[in-house]
Amino acid sequence: MNTGSSKSLDSGAWRNLYKAALFEVDNARLPERIAQAEKALALRARELFHLAGDNIEEEQALDDTMYALHALRNTSQTSHRTPHRSEAA
């Protein structure tokens, strides 16, 4: 296990990428922001799996964040396909 690798992410790194996706206002950039955050979450989850100790709080935060990113992706895709009520009338 190489915890000192340049690909290692601390708790703050994945949180920053999540926030960048959450607050992205450019719908064209949103899918890439979500993908970056999901990649960081998966990497951090793997790191925590190999770490000794109690990491349950961060593991739960990773799960919650992944769920939120999936919801964000689904919401953004749906809003692009479905016209708003005022546009449909």
What's this model, at a glance?
It is built from four helices and no strands. With 89 residues, the protein is mostly helical.
How is this structure best described in words?
The chain is an all-alpha fold and 89 residues long. The chain has a domain at 32-80. The protein has helices at residues 11-22, 30-50, 56-81, 85-88. It is elongated. Residues 1-7 have low confidence and may be disordered.
> Approximately what portion of the residues adopt beta-strand conformation?
under 5%
- Measured as a percent range, the helix fraction is over 70%
Report the structural category.
mainly alpha
* Gyration radius from CA atoms, angstroms: 16 Å
Which descriptors would you attach to this protein?
89 residues, mainly alpha, 71% helix, disordered N terminus
Secondary-structure map:
Layout (H helix, E strand, L loop, with lengths): L10 H12 L7 H21 L5 H26 L3 H4 L1
Helix pairs in contact: 1-2, 1-3, 2-3
